[in-house]
Structures are given as C-alpha cells and as structure tokens.
Design brief:
Layout: E1 17-20, E2 22-23, E3 42-43, H1 46-60, E4 65-69, H2 78-91, E5 97-101, H3 104-108, H4 112-120, E6 125-131, H5 135-140, H6 147-159, E7 163-170, H7 178-193, E8 197-202, H8 210-216, H9 225-238, E9 244-247, E10 258-261, H10 265-278
Helix pairs in contact: 1-2, 2-4, 6-7, 7-9, 9-10
Amino acid sequence: MRYEGNIFRPPSEARSYILQCTVGCSHNRCTFCNMYKDKKYRVRELEEIMADIRMAKLYYHDVEKVFLADGDALAMETSDLLQILTALYQSFSSLKHVGIYASPDSILNKSVEELSEMKKHGLTMAYLGVETGDEELLKDIRKGVTYEEMVAAGKRVREAGILLSVTILLGLAGRTPKAVEHALNTAKICNEINPDYIAALTLMLTPKTELYRRMQKGEFELPGPFEILEELRIIIEHLDVQGSEFRSNHASNYLPIKGRLPDDKGKILELIDQMIKRNDRNYLRPDYMRGL
C-alpha cells in the first residue's frame, strides 16, 4: 500500500484497510495537535486512489472495514467521495463499514442531501473532533468554529443517518480553575449533539505544537492523572445523552472505560470514584504505556 507520511486512525479502526484520500489536514491549526505538521494538505488524484483500491484488492482479497484518511477526507468533492465509495463496495464483497475523519468545517460545507447520498453509498461513520464545549477554549485552541457551529456540524451528520463519533480532550484547559468550565461545557455540547459515540482522549503535549511551546515557557501546565479523573467525572456526571456509547480506550488515557449511556452511568461514576479515592498510580495506565 502507498502512504505519505505518518498515518493516523481512531482506535476502533484498528482492523480497517486505511485508504489515504487526502494528505494532511485541511485545517491543521489546532494548538494541541502535531499529527499533520509535517505535511502540506492536498487532495490525492482520484486515479491514484482508484489504483490503491485495486492494489488493496490484490493484496487483501477482501475486507470488512475501510477507513478514509488523512485528517479530513470529507473535505474532498462529494462526487469524488461517491466514486470512491462505489469502487470500494464493488471491490470488496464483505465490506460493511467505511469510516472517515471529518472536520466541522468540511461537514458544514456539505449539505444534508450530500451527506445523505454518501450514507446511501456506504459511508457508515464520521469521526468529529469536538475537543471541548467551552466557547473561549475553542477559540484559544484555534479550532476554527464556534460552539454553535460545532453543534450544527454534529447534528448535520446525525440528520444524514451517518453514525457520529465525537472526541473530547481531557486536560485541555490545563491546571487551572477553567478545567471545571471545560468539563461542564463539554458535557453540555455532547448533550446537544447526542452522538452515537463519545471518545475521551487525554492531552499529551508534543513538539511542534503551540501548547508545547507554551508549556516550555511556563504558560501552560498539564493536570496530573487524578485531576484528569476529576475532570472526567464531571463530564460523565453531567452527560444526559440517550443511547451514546462512551469510551476512553485510547492509549493516551489513564483509565480505560467503556459503557453505554445512560444505562452504565452509575457504574462508570463508581469506578472513577474508586480510583480517585485510592489515589494510587498503580491502578492507572503508566506513562510509559500512554501514547498518541
């Protein structure tokens, strides 16, 4: 398979054939992210993508899952995405799932009708980086959209019938009182969107990012593991979603959690409370095992 640069995918796409449709991220300005800093965003030629699908057919013979990379493949022209989806389902008889990273901007640039057509052609899930529901923090991290725009993007995906998985980022407000507002507003935005999946990641600072440089200057401080758990607890406590699956199985997290809300809310809170009460790092994922 042909890939340019480092390739990233959600944990749930671990067994997917990854098809690189775009190189890099169309936004690529978030202060916390270095995933695509070494790439200049571009859309790959459709002929190249089709050739990759043919090569994948020869190599894999058949697949059940495909993930469309890089950071924002949904930014492609709708007509091209429809051709790609058609080619994938024609090539792989067992294909059941096609997932895609989607920025809020790229979603809002598509109509509900366009997204619905992608659903008809087999796009099953979109992954949206919400990160936070705090308006001030969204601006500070240069997410590029307002609270209302983020909600509109999430709802548009849901309206089109595509499964929606949103990511939220623990620790994004740093070791400040703002962390409580971040947690409360993140629960609030998830409640408004009511996504199918909510995935929590924990902030890890890496070189080439604005937040890393701020940390080096003493302008930003990462919360400790139990402060992160306190933040997580506030979010879970104030989530009022229906039928959403919550996950914190990403490698960046200190405590792996999986449950369906609201049914498992009590059990999740009980587990977090136990970990906070024990105050023992031995019960949490060690730093050397955490990663992006």
